[in-house]
């Protein structure tokens, strides 16, 4: 029995946590401290905070991966959820390992906007597109994150003559089309943008650089 108890403890999944970007929410874990046996498989359940019954996630029932997609199961973004994982190896079941409480609206990371650059002789025109959630409208298009949050765009210009880290904020607001004027012809300019959520005081990563020579 002790041997089984040791095996139970040593295969128990560690660090069970939700990772979420634009409401694409996945449960991640690490194998137990036993060097993972080849035959170790995992079982995932989830529930809404306050519910008594756990639901099985069928696609993640007896899997060898260390990640399980719960985007569909956590689509009520204001609700708090829990996930839990147990391992089975050599016929021995570990106890469940529980995640922290996860509320998608509060905790999802928001991605940067898509940036398209059009340049004229002394100015750059930018078109910004909000990141999309995985959830669809009735007509089939993915719902933009601006439906869920009051988002601002922050646009930074990098003048390539200067050091790469020297980003100058040239715009903050909600406009989807922005014109940056009074630039010097013949100079290479790069632009990056971020999404900012004032209510949560949270910024996205920078978008990929878009560069142009006027």
TrEMBL record:
Gene3D superfamilies hit by this protein: Immunoglobulins
Keyword Lipoprotein: no
Keyword terms of this UniProt record: Disulfide bond, Receptor, Repeat, Secreted, Signal
Keyword match GTP-binding: no
Ranges for domain Fibronectin type-III: 12-107
Domain of life, source organism: Eukaryota
Major subcellular site: secreted
Signal peptide: none
Any one GO molecular-function label of the UniProt entry: cytokine receptor activity
GO cellular component, as recorded: extracellular region; plasma membrane
Localization terms from the record: Secreted
Family note: Belongs to the type II cytokine receptor family.
PANTHER family from the UniProt entry: INTERFERON/INTERLEUKIN RECEPTOR, INTERLEUKIN-22 RECEPTOR SUBUNIT ALPHA-2
Role description: Receptor for IL22. Binds to IL22, prevents interaction with the functional IL-22R complex and blocks the activity of IL22 (in vitro). May play an important role as an IL22 antagonist in the regulation of inflammatory responses.
Name of this protein: Interleukin-22 receptor subunit alpha-2
């Amino acid at each position: 029995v002790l041997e089984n108890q040791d095996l139970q403890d040593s295969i128990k999944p560690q660090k069970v946590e939700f990772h979420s970007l634009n409401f694409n929410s996945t449960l991640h874990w690490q194998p137990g401290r036993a060097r993972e046996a080849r035959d170790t498989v995992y079982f995932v359940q989830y529930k809404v905070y306050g519910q008594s019954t756990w639901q099985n996630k069928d696609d993640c029932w007896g899997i060898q991966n260390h990640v399980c997609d719960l985007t569909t199961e956590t689509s009520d973004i204001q609700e708090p959820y829990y996930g839990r994982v147990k391992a089975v190896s050599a016929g021995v079941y570990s106890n469940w390992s529980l995640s922290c409480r996860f509320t998608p609206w509060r905790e999802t990371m928001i991605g940067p906007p898509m940036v398209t650059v059009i340049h004229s002789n002394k100015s750059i025109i930018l078109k910004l597109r909000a990141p999309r959630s995985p959830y669809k409208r009735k007509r089939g298009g993915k719902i933009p994150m601006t439906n869920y949050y009051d988002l601002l765009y922050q646009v930074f210009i990098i003048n390539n003559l200067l050091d790469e880290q020297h980003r100058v904020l040239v715009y903050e607001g909600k406009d989807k089309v922005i014109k940056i004027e009074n630039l010097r012809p013949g100079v290479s300019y790069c632009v990056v943008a971020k999404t900012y959520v004032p209510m949560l005081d949270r910024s996205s990563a920078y978008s990929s650089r878009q560069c142009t020579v006027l």
